[in-house]
Each structure stands twice: as structure tokens, then as C-alpha cells.
Amino acid sequence: MSKWKQAAVIVMIISGLAAAGELNFTIEKHQLANGLMVLLLEDHSCPTVTIQAWYRCGSKNEVPGITGISHLFEHMMFKGTKKYPKEKFDRLVLGNGGYNNAWTSFDNTTYYEVMPPSKVEVAIDLEADRSRNLAINEQNLSSEKQVVLSERSMRYDNDPFGSLYEQIFNNAYVAHPYRWLPIGFESDIKSITLQDCLDYYRTHYAPNNSFLIISGDINSKEVMKMVEKHYGPIKAEVNQAPVRTVEPPQRGEKRIQYHKMAQLPAFIAGFKIPDGKSPDIYALKVAARVLFGGESSRLYRRLVYEEQKALFVDGEAARYQDPALFYVMAGAVPGSNMDSIEAEVWQEIDKLQTEPITDYELQKAKNQLESEFIFGMQTNESRASMVGSFEINTGDYMNIYKEAEGYRSVTAADVMRVAKKYLNSRNRTVVILVPEPPTQASISE
Amino acid sequence: MKKSKIIINILIAVLFISVNGFAQLKLPPITEETLDNGLQLVIVENHELPLVTMRLVVKAGAANDPNEKAGLANLTAGLLRQGTATLKATEIADKIDFVGGSLSASTNRDYTNISCSVLLKHFDVGFGLLADIVVNPKFDSSEFARELNQTIAGVIQSKDDPDNLCERGFNQALFGTNPYGRPSVGTEASLKNITVEDVKKFYRDYYLPNNAILLVAGDVMPAAIIKETRKAFSGWEKGSVPVMNSMPANEPSGRSVVLIDKPDATQSNIRFGHLGITRKDPDYYPLLLMNYILGGSFTSRLNAVVRVQKGLTYDIRTQNEWNVMPGAYYCNTYTPNESTMIAIQASLDVIKKMQTELVTDEEFNEAKNFYSGYYPGSLETADNIVSEIIKIKLYGLPVSYIEDFTENINKVTKEAILKAAKNHWNTDNLIFCVVGKASEIEKMLAPLGPITKKTIDQF
């Protein structure tokens, strides 16, 4: 590419973003005969390529008894195949100058590699191979269950905030599988069998239940040849059944007292909000910025800065495939009263239902959302993750192009409407962390 | 005002360096300038997205805190955005939040980092605020009292984090009265010793243009940035920077254990080690590769044995702290109460083996290839490049450090790796810190050495 062309592209990007918030990258879509969707984001500004394999399965596809299997299985995907046994997977990625990892959430399980451009095929080959040919056994399952139990202890059981986070989902949902976290319950992790894993693998890990995103310094045509070569021969499977359970409406506040050894009291609350396709998400995200966005936000200024009662206050409107939570979290400073902090949080939320936010606050929230969106696109990896999240959470990756317009069109009246509809006391679950001194905790163990 | 001039252009235009047929190092233009008052300015251009990240680095950190006032550097940094000569704390928050930017300060052992990120169209707001809080902070006494109470509350809350407790206990035992033994954020007791006058003095002593570097990265034009910097920072008066008496810490002799009792713990957090090497040490590259193979990657020997084979933990790693003075070289992990001693013994065995034989060809090639391939891509954002430049400036590394990185990695031999393992691990002289349920684990730790038992309240 000549220097002149480069300069022209830059000008377009800036004016585009400044004027309309359009994205400065194009997404090329391909579909293999076996149903695998491939999204390519060609961009030559940095010599890296991210390869992400997204499976449309997460903890919401589990049932009681095998909770946590999606995440445990994610760990098992690193255990090797006949072609690349044992730790060969990691050795090949790292030894070719790349790095890799994976994550499991409610709605998806995603694996990724970040490679130098000349080593893209190494990752495509490895991902295609393990999507069908995994060789796992009783022995490596048994030791990996111990690893996952250790992860669970670290993230949730031995961390008061991790515990609160688990509790809010355990208690806010009564029917829908969001009621357990992707980590799963301890007893289920312990009792999952090799057969459970193999069944899970066969059902969910098929080309027609997954998609690839390849982002960065690639030649799209060349990369598609590699994808065809490695994924083409893999057969489609009968599609998994979608989750049938619909969470029934909540008709009153739920309050949970959670006793745990901790230094300071805190609480977490969750209001039920709609799924990721709902246009109400934009106004809810604006509401979250007005309440929690920076030190000038309503709740930070009141509780942390002026009254100095809270150590922190935070919240967000989560976007998932199925109806999600608008969550709020606050912690007290020593000597301050948790009840009064909670009461003031509700006062500020109630105010959103009765008084329109100011034009200034609305514009501030929109500026914050725009900034988050653009800063979130700095790397090949973060761009790919964002595109994948839109596909999973909104049902269509193309919605990423509508995001900026979605925020821009929010009005003060919209914020008031969604606050009334969703952020009301009948629709909320509250979990209160009641700190216990060390001696008591010791006895209760 | 005299005209300053461009001192070095590290690299002009786009530079490509081919490395072993791997990725190419592709650095954007970098411009350097020094103002008359001594403020160094570094500009990194990246025109991909319309955003700017700015960092002002003051070469004073927690190590510069007076012994009984640990947390002073951190508190001073935190107070910068809580009011200037012309703006109240609330006005600063309003301005930065309105443009969707971020403005924050953080302190580590060696330096203080004041950062601001904004979209390019809001550059004036971000740059103006950054300059104002650095040059004209007010340190109002009511803001001081509020920030102090918040910081103390944060210290109290952090006692719920076993990894944080383990780090504190380990550093205290290893470094003793050396400045690196104190937590950067301070302790409840040390914070209560600090007055607003201490903060003002710390600022007067260390926040000097000739003790600072301003780094601006993103979609910017160097000429314009140089002009803006002169306008905003020329009034900042230079001064003489106090010289810190560096006190080397003592290596541990023999093995000893600090056990912090956390009666509700189901896992033990473990950290053990001794002093490591400084960032400037000539053994940096051999140690980097040795550490990758020992405990610095997912394919490391420690991960293979303790996590993959034995299933004792989700995470185990070894790390040398890269500081101006020697930091710690340690191993840390966590494991269920009952396997505490098994995990420690297994880790020690792996470390000892590392000191007795050459690494395999497979390990050697993987480690080198990893760094050769990974490093160029790790400079993807302008802010990543800024982090590397800060290392050059603070640790006195050669200007060509970024370009020479892969070459230096490829110069390391297997013999040098073995030598690094022998020289930089000493399993006879170790400090162990374990945070866990004492009633279940104290007895099993006894063979390690004398145990000093502590409660969470002592931190």
C-alpha cells in the first residue's frame, strides 16, 4: 500500500468516527458447506493475527447435576488429540511465537490464539483438529477436576465479592439456567464423568454450532483456503436443542443475608432486564452511566465523595443472550451503616423513574459509551471479541454497526421509561454480605 | 522562554525488522524533546484510531516514602485530581467524565504514573487537565482527610484478598526495613502518621520537571504536541531532586516461614523466594528464558508438574520483580489446605532439577521462538510502546532496547540458562509466606523451618 493511500484511509476513519460513529473495519462473512460461519477482519496495521473459535454453548446449556461442565470441558480441550497429543497444543502455539487461552460464559465458550501472521495456519489446524478429535481419559479428567475446584475456591469460595456475585445469580433466577455460574457447583464438578464430557462434546462441538473469527494481518483469500482445508472435511451434526426454560416474572423483592468472614459489609443487587436483542439495553446502559460512570456520577458523588459512607459503588446493565441483570454493588467504609447506603442507592434509582436526567448527563453518558466503544477496538483481539459478543448476545454480529446509533438515539424520556419498567423494587434481588469475625467463621467451618 | 530543540529521533518513519522469518517489528514514528526546565517529552504516533493516551511519569514512588509514612507517594498521587489552584475536585471529575475520558494516578515502588486517555476530539480537555493537576495541585486539607480515610478503608478491605496478604507478609519478611518491604499503598498505622504537610513536601521534593517524563501516544502530530507541552508545562519550575539512600536488602539465611492465619480459608496461598536481580542486570535475558521454562508460561515445568500432572492448583508461576533495586524472585501458587506441603515440596523439587541439568532442545527453542514471535505483536497499541520506552528511561536501558530485544533473546545459550538457574535460585535460603487455615496447615509446614505466626489484624 502506498503512503498516499494510507493517509487517505486515515482521514476517512477519523471523519467517519467523528461524524457518525461508524466502524473503521469491514467484516467479511463466509459460510462452509458444513455450516461453519467464518468472519474475517483484515487489517494490516499490526503484525499479529487473532484466531477465535466460538462455540454456541455455555453454562446455560447445562442441567442440574452437570453444572460447570461447559467450563470443565473448556479445560479438557487442552488435553490433546491423536495428532497433537498432551501438551503439544500449547507448545505449538507458544513455540511459534503466539499465545492462547479460552473463556466460558453463560452463552458461549471461546478459544483463541494470537499468532504472528506467518503462523496462522498452525492455529487453524490445531483448532479444527481438537474440535473433533479430542482424546481425553479418566486420568486427565480426574486431575483437571482438581484444577477447576482450585479455581472455584480462588474465585468464589475464598473471595467475599466472588461469593456475592455467585449468590446474586443463585437467588435472582428460579428457573432459567443463569441461576448457576459457568464455574458450576462444587458437588457437580466433583461428580461429572468422562461420559458426560464425551456427550457434551458430541452435542455442542460441531461446525454448525460454532463460528470462527480471524482478525488482523491476514490475506483473506489465503486464510479461507486454510480454513477450507482444515474445517471443510468435518461433518455437520444434528443441532443441539435450544434452551427451553423461560424465567418467570419476579413479583417481589428477594433479600438474602450472606454470612462470611470479611472485613467490611457490602451488598449486591440485581434487577431483571431483557435479553441482548432488546433495544431497551441502550437506555439501561445510559442509566448505569448516570448512576455509576466516573467520579461525577450521581451515586459516586453522593455516597463516596460527599457523604463518605461508601468505599465503592458500581453497576452495569449486562447484555446476555437471554434476559439478564442490571446489577448494583456497594461496599461500606468502616463505621458506616450498610442499610443507609442501600436506602440511598434506591433513592437515586427511584429518582430516575420520576425526573428526567439532564441534557448534560445524557450527553455525558453518550460520550462515555462512545469512548468505551472506540477504546475497546485497539487490538485485533479486542475487535474480534467484540464482534463475537455481538453475534452471541444479539443474534447477529452485524448489530455492531448499529451500536453507536443505538446510544445516540436514547432520550431522557427513554431512561425514565426503562427505569420505571425494570429498575423497580419488585423486580430486584438483594444479597447482603454480613461480615463475621475470624473466630466465629472458624467455628462455623 | 528559550527554544528547546529535538534531541533524538529514535526512529524515523516506519521501521521493519525481520526476525527469524517471524513477525516483523513495526514501530511507529517516535519523537523526543526536552524542555528547558528539564521535562522530557516522548511522542509516539499511531493513527489507526482517533484516540490519545498520555502519561506523566514522576521518578519517585513508594521507595521514596519515609519509613514510618508508607503510602505517602500513593496518597500524593491520588490527591492530584482532588483540586487545583483553579478547579475543585468535583469540577475536574465533571470535565473528564463529560468527555468520556479517564484520568488517574498510580504509584509503584520506583515511580508514579499519572495517566489520561481521551478521544482525539477531546485532546484539549484531557491534556489541559493532566497539566493542571500535575503543575498546580492544591492539596486542600478536607480533600486530604477524605482521600486518607478512603485509602485506609481500601487497605482494610484488601485483607479479604489472600493473595494480597501473602504478598505483604512475604515482602515484610524478605525486605525488612528496606523500602521494598513496605506496601506501596501503606498500612493503617503508617497512613495515620501522614499529614497534609507531608503530602505538600513530597510534592515539592519530587514533582519536578527535571524528575519527570511526559509521554503522549496516539493519533497526534508531534509539532503540535511539542507546542502544547511548552505552553502548559514551561511554568513548572525545576529544582534539585533529593538523593535517596539506597539500602540493599539482606538475603535470607536459611529457611523460615511466615504463617498468616485465615481461619475460613479452604485453600492456602503460598509465596516463597528470596532476592532477585534488577532490571538492568546483564543476566536479564538468560533469566527471562530460564524463568519461562521454569514457571513463566503455561508449558513451564512447574505448571506441568504441579497443575497438569498433580492437579494441585489452578495457577503456579515464578516471577522476578523488575525494579531499580533488586526486587524479589519468587514462586507463588495456591492449593487446597490438605495439599499445602505437597505443593511446596513438588515446586522445590522442580526448581532444584532446573539447577542441575541443561534444558531440552524443545524447551529451549520454544522459549526463544515465543519471545521472538510474541514481542513485535505485543507493541500493538501506542500505549504498549510507551510502557517499553518508560523502561528504557527508568532503568537506564540502551535506547536500542526495543529493536535489539529479539537479537538479545537469540544470543542466550542453554549453558547461560543453566547458569542463571544456579545463580538466581537458592533453595537453601528461602522465605516462605503462607496464608491459610493455621489449625489445619501449621503442623505440616514445620519441616520447612521456624514458623512465625501472624493474624490478619497485624497487616
Task: Give a verbal description of the structure.
The complex is a heterodimer of chains A (445) and B (459). With 445 residues, chain A is of the alpha+beta class. Helix content of chain A is 46%, strand content 18%. Chain A has 17 helices and 11 strands. Chain A has a 6-stranded mixed sheet with strand order 1-2-6-3-5-4, with helices on both faces. A 5-stranded mixed sheet of chain A has the order 7-11-8-10-9, sandwiched between helices. In chain A, strand 9 (310-317) and strand 10 (324-332) form a beta hairpin. In chain A, 48% of the residues are buried. Chain B is globular, with a radius of gyration of 24 Å. Residues 1-21 of chain B have low confidence and may be disordered. In chain B, helix 1 (72-79) packs across helix 7 (196-206), helix 9 (284-296) packs across helix 15 (414-424) and helix 12 packs antiparallel against helix 14 (401-411). In chain B, the strands form 3 sheets. Chain B has a 6-stranded mixed sheet, sandwiched between helices. The N and C termini of chain B lie far apart (51 Å). Chains A and B meet through helix 1, helix 3, helix 5, helix 11 and helix 13 of A and strand 2, helix 2, strand 7, helix 4 and helix 10 of B.
Please mark out the parts of chain B with pLDDT under 50 across 5 or more consecutive residues, or reply none: 1-21
The largest β sheet of chain A comes out as: 6 strands, mixed
Shape of chain B: globular
Q: Do you know the CATH topology of the largest domain in chain B?
A: Cytochrome Bc1 Complex, Chain A, domain 1
At CATH level 3, the topology of the largest domain in chain A is: Cytochrome Bc1 Complex, Chain A, domain 1
CATH architecture of the largest domain in chain B: 2-Layer Sandwich
Using a beta-carbon cutoff below 8 angstroms, give the protein chain pair with the largest interface and the number of residues from each chain. Answer: A-B, 80 and 80 residues
Name the CATH superfamily classification of the largest domain in chain A.
Metalloenzyme, LuxS/M16 peptidase-like
CATH class bucket of the largest domain in chain A: Alpha Beta
Number of domains of chain B: 2
Kindly provide the radius of gyration of chain A, computed on alpha-carbon positions and rounded to a whole number of angstroms: 23 Å
* Lateral arrangement of strands in the main beta sheet of chain A: 1-2-6-3-5-4
